[in-house]
């Protein structure tokens, strides 16, 4: 893809913000599918700024039907509902084939379940590539839909998380799915209330 094509793709993206129980989530899409899901930042303005920075040229827009369905599903998920995001069509143009394999394997992990970086590496037939898997997940453009929060370090340790809030955000997403408990305090699902 040359620079002209890349800018044309960016210009054709649209975005919106979605109010959820965990804060404003930013969504961006192209004609091909969802291109980005921005987890909540400190407030809705920060989320929008981050999304615009990541997108470059993009315009705010009312979402098409496919994104409206996703909005409803995200709201249910952020309220603690069991949601399967497998039907969401993604536009992963510009993503490496290795990262696409990692993302496909991560999408296969169901709600409320986890896997380790090493297990994910084995699932894509790249044993020993746990660090590369972690790097790919650190650049995941559509968190929640590609559930990178479900991937843990060895021994069930939380591992890293590149979204705003870092590992606290990861624990909170896991808590929405009923996974784990914070040893220092309340069940993770209640941490959202402390926000």
Strand content: 5-15%
Q: Which value, in Å, is the CA radius of gyration?
A: 16 Å
The CATH class name of the largest domain reads Mainly Alpha
Largest sheet properties: 4 strands, mixed
Unreliable stretches (pLDDT < 50, length at least 5) are 1-11, 181-195
CATH evolutionary superfamily of the largest domain: Winged helix-like DNA-binding domain superfamily/Winged helix DNA-binding domain
Mean pLDDT: 86
* Order of strands in the sheet with most strands: 3-2-1-4
What is the count of distinct domains?
2
Short description:
This protein is an alpha/beta fold. The chain has 7 helices and 6 strands; from the N terminus they run αβββαβααβααβα.
What does this entry look like structurally?
With 195 residues, the protein is α/β, with parallel strands linked by helices. The chain folds into two domains: 3-78, Double Stranded RNA Binding Domain, CATH 3.30.160; 97-194, Arc Repressor Mutant, subunit A, CATH 1.10.10. Helix content is 37%, strand content 13%. It is built from seven helices and six strands. The strands form two sheets. It has a four-stranded mixed sheet. Helix 5 crosses helix 6. It is globular and about 45 Å long. Mean pLDDT is 86; it is low at 1-11 and 181-195.
